[in-house]
Amino acid sequence: MVGPSDGPVQVSIKGCRGKPEASLRKFLDTKVGRPVNLSNINFRGEIMYVSVPSMDIAQELLKLSGIRFYGEKLTFQIKTHPVKFGAGAPGRDGAGASDSVTVRDRLVALLQTRVDPQGSSLDLSALSQDSIIQSLGADPLQDSKLFEAILVLATQLYTDIVTVNLANNGMSSLRPVANLGMHFPHLRNLSLMNNRISDLRELNCLSAAGSKVPLGELSELILQGNPASDAELRLPNGGASYVEKVQQRFPTISMLDMNPVTPRAQPVSAAGTSTSASTVPRELPFPVAQTFAEDQAINELAVGFLEGFFGLYDGNRGGLADIYDAAAVFSLMVDTTHPTSEFARTNSDSQKRVDFTAYIRISRNLTRVKSQHKRIHALVVGRAAVIQAIAQLPATRHPLQDSQRFSFDAWRADVDGCAQQGMAVVAVHGEFTEVQTGSLISFDRVFALAPALPGSPAAAIGSPCVITNDQLTLRRYNGFHSWLPSSELAAPAPVLNLTPEQQEMARALQEQTGMNPEWTLKCLESYGWNYQQAMTEFPQVRGTLPAEAFQ
C-alpha cells in the first residue's frame, strides 16, 4: 500500500457533476475533519477526477462513499492507474473529453455559484480571486475569449439576467465586456464599482456612442470607486457634470452610484421606441403617505420628540445635553452634488450656491472620505463631544409651524450593541434655513432612541427617551413635494385593507417581478399571500400573463 507521504493520489467522485465546487470542498473538509486540498480537477462525463495530497486522505474519502451531497449519493474510488488529461489523452475510463469540455464544466460550476436562485442576477465580481478561475490558470478579464465564453454560457443557461456585478476586477478598460448588450439585451442594473476606469469615455463601448447593441434598458449604474468618477466629483459643480456625462451615454438610468437621478428617457420598448420620462407617470403600489408610524404610541413618541428636539436645536443646543445618552454617537454626512429632480432644476433655492464648509469639516461621506483616520475621527462619541460638535454648526431655523415640510417614519427596533429594551428609530426628512446666510438646506436625520432610565438627566426633565445614535445628512434643497399625498395616487379600496406585512410583500414582489400593482396583488392573493411560493412559481407562469400585467 502506498504510504501517506508518497505524494498526490488521484480519486474519482461520482454524483457531484454540476454542483458548486466551493461547496463540495467545504463539505469534504468538514466530513474528513481536515483540509482535503482538492487539485487537478477534471471531468469525464458524470465523473470528477481530483488529486489529494496523500493516500490517507484518499482512504478517508473512500469511507465517505454513499454520503449524500445536494441530494445526490457520492461514490469515491482511488485510481491506482491515474487517468491522464490533456490533448489526445482519453484516459482509462472511456472516451475522453477535450480540454475545452473540461473548461466548460468548470465555467458551469462557476456560474452555479454566481447566479442568484431566481436566475436574474449574475455576480462576476473579483473573478481573479475565484478558486475555479484560478484552477483555469487565466484571468478572464485579460483573456477576452475566456470572458466571452462565460457570457455565452450564462446566456444559454440563464435567460432572465437583468443584473450584472463586475466590481473589484481591476478593469482599466471596458473592452472585454463590450458585448454585454448583445448577451443581456434587457440588462437593467450594472455595477463597475472599485475598478481602475480613469476615463468616462470607456463607457462608450456599452452605449449607443460606440456599440451596435447598447444597454438600452439600463436603469442603475454604479461607478464609484473608479478614478474617473472620483475625478469628476472633485471638479467645481462636479456632481451635476458627472450626472450629465453619464446620462449622455445612458439616458434611461434612474440610479447613479446608489443615488436617484431623473432619467431623460424611458427604456426602449419592444417596438423600438422610447418615451420621455417626464411624460410617463410613475405608478406606485400604495398611496403616498407623509409619515409612517408603527402604532399610535410610537407616533406620539416621535411627534413629541421631534418638536422638542428641533425647538432646542434652533434655540438652545446646550439644552440638548440632557436628552443625549452618555455614550451617544453622532455623525454627519454632506452630499454636495446638485439634485437632479424636475423641481430642483427650476427652483432658485436649489440652484443657489451653498457653502458647506462648516459641515464638511466633520463630514463622514464615505464616498468622498477615503482616509480611514478621518473616517474614525469624524465619528463623534460621547454626550459632551456631541454637544460640542453640534454647537459649532451654523445656527438654524426649522419651519416647525409648517408640518407639510417634514416627513418621518418611526418604528420599534432592536439596535445592535445596545442592551436596553424598548428601542425606537425615528427617521425624519425636512428642511431648515441657515440664520446667517439664509440658505435653505434639505436634510435627513435618523435617531435611535432608548427609554430614559429613572434618575437620568432626561427623566429629570420629563423626557421619555434618550438619543443613543444621531445621524445627520445634508444636501442642497430639493423641496418637500415628493412625500405629499396625491389624490392621483390613491389606491383601490382593497389595498387600504392590507396589513403592513402584506404591503411589504406586495412592494417586494412588484420590485422583483416588474408587475403592476393590480397584478401584484392578484398574484399574492392567488397564492394565499405566500410570498416564497409566489416567487418560486412566477418564472413558470410569467409567459402566461397578459402584457397589461407589466404596464
SSE arrangement:
Layout: E1 9-14, H1 21-32, E2 39-44, E3 47-52, H2 55-62, E4 68-69, E5 72-73, E6 75-78, H3 99-114, E7 121-123, H4 131-136, H5 144-157, E8 163-165, H6 180-183, E9 189-191, E10 220-222, H7 227-234, H8 238-249, E11 255-256, E12 259-260, E13 292-293, H9 296-315, E14 324-335, H10 342-346, H11 348-351, H12 357-360, H13 372-377, E15 380-381, H14 383-391, E16 396-397, E17 407-412, E18 424-434, E19 440-451, H15 457-460, E20 465-476, H16 493-496, H17 500-513, H18 517-526, H19 531-541
Parallel strand pairs: 7-8, 8-9, 9-10, 10-11, 13-17, 14-20
Antiparallel strand pairs: 1-3, 1-6, 2-3, 4-5, 11-12, 14-15, 16-18, 17-18, 18-19, 19-20
Helix pairs in contact: 3-5, 7-8, 17-18, 17-19
